[in-house]
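Entry type: protein chain
Record version: 2
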Amino acid sequence: MSEQTRERSGRRVVIAGAGMAGVQTAVALREQGFDGPVTLIGAEPHPPYDRPPLSKGVLLGKGEEAAFDVDFTGLGIDLRLGRRVTGVRPADKEADTDQGPVGYDVLVAATGARPVRLPGTEDAAGVHVLHNLDDALRLRPVLERGESVVVVGAGWIGAEFTTAAREAGCEVTVVEATGRPLSGALPEEVAVPMGAWYAESGATLHTGARVERVEPGAVLLADGRRLRADAVVVGIGARPDTAWLGGAVELGPQGEVLADERLRASAPDVYAVGDCASFPSARYGERLLIHHWDNALQGARTVAGSILGETAAAPYDPVPYFWSEQFGRFVQYAGHHAAADTLLWRGSPRDAAWSVCWLREGRLVALLAVGRPRDLAQGRRLIASGALVDPGLARDPGRPLKSAVA
């Protein structure tokens, strides 16, 4: 343990949020030598759990929640569940909760994101989101009964839920306001072929369709169409859960904490990690807000190091990564393609497995792999290294992805 770490170990660390980002921050603090008080506050009453199984095993009743394998007591982590953080007073070094204030020397915001609700349906019966364990448990009987479901939104969550619902034998209709699925995530030429997956699964996909209102047993579209729906599942995005921070720290346009390269917020001794924070990426030359599991895991280690004063470590600038299982396909994405100047295919979307590469000035900056995990692994390393690639060779799905420089 360094002298700097010893000096900082007596401070009280309070972590708001007991999801992946919060739990891993607490664990990383212990792994990196912090022996001071750590309090982990979670809004849900359930022991902290992993979220990816919610849209898979938990939803289909094939498995229970995947509680984190963490011995909180053995690590000396004060776990306080069923308690929501409602505010913070940096001048007083106190976080307010619905069960009273909690004093801190260091505060970590790890409260994740809240799902966006369909206007006018916040309290409507039969209208669901799929964000936490209770959401999955409420939806499980819908699938068990094989009810007809209208899914609003053809993004990642919409696709994963549709996959599970079709596996359960539900009649599924998906309504997407834009002209294609994954419109906020992928360009048209990549996303449009993926729309065919819905029909292959037996689901009906309506694009360019807006919901006018939800009625008992039906969804009415703006063009007058009426869709039968025993249940409605809304998957139209999420926003950082940061309202509790008020004006204590600087927030971005989506309400995210504007963290720096060490994931420090604008207020002294306040940090932010996971879905509720954006950070400046030197790799991509812009600020990134990433709502994915891997970001929460990696960011936690940086926050722990920052709290312990390990400023010599590299700034936080990961290669973003996520994966999704949908319609019998394993889909992986690494990088960030917004500023790419070249898109090239490895294989065809008509194939069982294919990939798409995005290049900028000859360097791989992002990759989408469908059923080609080796492409993803190779591409992720190339993105991290900033290596040049040969576009001609990269187009050949029979060749490995590798640097153009020997």
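Comment: The mean pLDDT is 94.
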